[in-house]
Write a structure and sequence with these properties.
The chain is mainly α. It contains one helix and no strands. The longest helix is centred in the middle third of the chain and has 56 residues.
């Protein structure tokens, strides 16, 4: 009876460890995914700023056009 009880305790402890491992792996994946998304957003913003700066350094005007609202009559 004690051997059966010990086996059941060992299995439940192993299941908890597996669940903890999966949770840690999932949290790590979420952190890496958030960092990747932040990196993509940062690169896009830097590219837009670089294009604007290149336009201004070339001596052009109207590099960042401002759209005026349409007046309704």
């Amino acid at each position: 009876m004690i051997a059966v009880q010990n086996r059941m305790d060992w299995r439940s402890a192993e299941r908890r460890e597996d669940a903890d491992r999966r949770t840690a792996a999932l949290m790590g994946f979420v952190v890496v995914l958030c960092l990747a998304i932040a990196g993509v957003v940062l690169v896009r913003e830097l590219r837009q700023k670089s294009n604007l700066e290149d336009c201004l350094m070339a001596g052009r005007k109207n590099c960042a056009p401002i759209e005026a609202p349409v007046r309704r009559l």
